[in-house]
Specification:
This protein has 3 domains: 23-99 and 179-195 and 205-258, P-loop containing nucleotide triphosphate hydrolases (Rossmann fold, 3-Layer(aba) Sandwich), CATH 3.40.50.300; 108-177, no CATH class; 275-528, 3-Layer(aba) Sandwich (Rossmann fold). The chain is built from 19 helices and 22 strands. The radius of gyration is 24 Å and the shape is globular. The chain binds adenosine-5'-triphosphate and magnesium ion.
Length: 529
């Protein structure tokens, strides 16, 4: 229906050959940032008509390698060849002209602009006289979302969309200009299962059409479902490349971490009788046109020393629930919340923090990180009061606390004074966690805390969660990865369309029972229609 021609640089003969060939070759790439060697002599080849997974721990150099390929980093050593031709990019535009498109890990959209304007940013469609052709751009945007099966309106302001939808916009943006080489840096980290399934279909189509897809992911099931080939980096160096059918997930993980990682299992532990948080009849209106789900009559308790997992599809209201519990909702929630037996009404997250309720948000770029600040400042920012004596910050104590946090979470950084933006995505996430751990709240709300975090570090975070509850904390955590929820939760609450549809004990909670409750109303709707 819509055949957009590929960039001329490829030539038709190379494009349609039946045998997959090397579309891309990156030779001996090295890159350092100050003293940090992000990449050392890395060589990487990827075939046409294939999905190539790029794996490695947080900070291994995956995003850096791909930023070089996408023309976002131009000062590096080494060579890039596409279809055998050496190319040099002086910016992203050159890479795009050579047929390379990237979906960044940290979403790269302009929040004030509409969805359609973001998708065509810098490549606007125009009428003959130079005016913007909004009609065409909106129609093309609509078609892209149809292909992705995502009900997003081209005219919505991007900043009003939830992070999962923003990720869909980022994907649509990359698909708008059909690219010979499409790089996806953790594209599914905020997508629901249904959206992931749709994205897989699109990727399979692209592969069949001869495109090269480079796919960065920490999820082994994803790598082994999608990828034809796998390459692993560790500490900025090439470790191995293999056809995925000739290797195993365990092997890839060993290449990544250079050691064995023990599988984590749920460990029963004593839970306090005392309810730390009692929520009854919690409800929240959905702001008009926001597309955010409303919450309806949600009641539950969380005890001290307990982890309650919140499951649900994207749009089920998981984030809205956590926001409503800590005064972060745009509207005032109805119902009542008792903290430690006393009623609380938080107007703002700072009220909640003062009372001992802290939220770690899923959207680290917009809500969690202070990009102009250092790693150390990002970690201690909520905690300066406790590190001060008579109004003066105790710098020694501050530095000790920061070093302790960096060590405890194995944050990979040049040091406390490095800018937080110099850290890899997963390590930025660890900084936010470190900040809240330092405050030691009574109730910790974790929204997708392991998004973008590698297998080794995930295990560290699960251990940390266990340690925190042992010390009496109550934790509510959302995750779209069911195995993860089943590993850490003492109880699992399931939401569907803003309602609680199940509360499952350890004995009752399985992937099947959770999915059943998560799709309860959806089933009814689709059966009715
Ligand atoms: N702009 C920068 N300034 C300084 N150091 C940087 C910069 N960008 C990346 N680095 C460093 O380079 C190394 C590789 O980072 P990169 O972002 O490529 O890792 P990654 O493999 O994508 O990790 P993740 O899985 O966490 O996204 C890290 O040590 C990181 O701190
Ligand atoms: Mg990265």
């Amino acid at each position: 229906m819509r055949r957009i021609t590929l960039p001329l640089v490829l030539g038709s003969a190379t494009m349609l050959g039946s045998e997959p060939h090397d579309r891309l070759e990156m030779r001996q790439i090295s890159k350092s940032f100050g003293g940090v060697h992000a990449l050392r002599n890395v060589s990487f080849r990827a075939r046409a008509g294939a999905v190539h997974a790029l794996c490695g721990e947080n900070g291994a150099g995956k995003s850096t390698l791909m930023k070089i390929l996408a023309g976002a980093i131009t000062d590096f050593e080494g060579q890039i060849l596409i279809d055998g031709r050496a190319l040099s990019f002086s910016g992203p535009r050159d890479a795009e002209d050579a047929g390379v498109r990237i979906i960044y890990q940290e979403l790269n959209l302009v929040p004030e602009m509409t969805v359609a304007a973001n998708i065509f940013l810098g490549r606007e469609r125009r009428h003959g006289l130079g005016w913007l052709d909004n009609r065409t751009m909106e129609a093309e945007t609509r078609r892209l979302f149809e292909r992705l099966g995502a009900p997003i309106s081209p005219r919505t302001i991007v900043g009003d969309l939830r992070i999962g939808d923003q990720q869909m916009v980022e994907i649509a943006k990359a698909l708008a200009f059909e690219a010979a080489i499409l790089i996806m840096d953790e594209p599914t980290s905020a997508l629901s299962d249904a959206e992931v399934a749709r994205l897989y279909r699109v990727i399979n189509d692209l592969r069949a059409g001869g495109h090269t897809i480079i796919y960065i992911s920490h999820k082994m099931n994803e790598v082994f479902t999608l990828a034809d080939d796998v390459t692993v980096l560790r500490d900025g160096q090439f470790v191995a490349s293999a056809a995925s059918r000739e290797t195993q997930p365990d092997q890839v993980v060993r290449w990544m971490v250079g050691r064995e990682i023990a599988a984590m299992h749920y460990e029963p532990h004593p839970i306090s009788e005392r309810a730390m948080l009692e929520v009854s009849g919690l409800s929240l209106a959905s702001p008009p046109l926001s597309g955010r789900p409303a919450l309806r009559d949600i009641s539950f308790q969380v005890h001290a020393r307990e982890v309650v997992g919140v499951a649900g599809l994207l749009g089920a209201g998981r984030t809205e629930l956590l926001e409503a519990l800590c005064g972060a909702s745009p509207e005032r929630p109805g119902g009542s919340i008792l903290l430690n037996g006393r009623p609380v009404h938080f107007r703002h997250p700072s009220d909640a923090i003062e009372a001992g309720v802290a939220l770690v948000t899923e959207d680290r770029k917009n809500l969690g990180l202070f990009n102009e600040m250092t790693v150390g400042e990002n970690i201690t920012i909520g905690h300066i009061g406790a590190l001060s004596k008579g109004g003066v910050i105790d710098r020694g104590a501050e530095m000790r606390a920061i070093r302790h946090a960096i060590e405890r979470l194995s944050i990979k950084t040049a040091g406390p004074s490095a800018l937080v933006t110099s850290l890899s995505g997963g390590n930025q996430q660890k900084c936010i966690l470190a900040r809240w751990l330092m405050i030691e709240p009574k109730v910790l709300l974790l929204d997708e805390p392991t998004r973008g975090i590698d297998v080794g570090a995930k295990a560290e975070i699960y251990n940390l969660i266990r340690e925190l509850v042992k010390h009496g904390m109550a934790i509510i955590m959302t995750s779209s990865e069911l195995p993860e929820l089943l590993t850490v939760s003492d109880r699992i609450m399931v939401l569907c369309e803003g309602r609680k549809t199940a509360e499952l004990t350890r004995a009752e909670a399985t992937e099947e029972s959770i999915m059943h409750a998560a799709t309860q109303f959806l089933d009814r709707v689709s059966k009715a229609s």
